[in-house]
Specification:
alpha+beta, Arc Repressor Mutant, subunit A, 72% helix
Length: 110
Amino acid sequence: MAKKEKHMLEDLFLREKPARIMLGLKTTKNPTYVTVLSKEADCTYSHTIKILNTFKKLGIVKFEKKGRIKKVILTDDGWDIAHNLEAMIKKLVQIEDNYQKEQDKKKVKK
């Protein structure tokens, strides 16, 4: 993988808005409206479209258009990424919770 691509992917998935959009797509499991994803990610419609177009170029999502209605869904690669992203977030929360419990125990002992 080229250095620029690696940086682009890291930058894309280690940011809050793209991550929230990915998790929103994973949660719905069905094709969903861009406006719904925008609201879930607390993001403007145009920024959401920009992120989704990048995802599309990378083969992570695909658009389904019927007339004026445009919906988006994860591809198989997108599902893998969303699943791993969700697992990573759960693990990070677990580590943070354990750390906080240890800090609370130390305060009680003092």
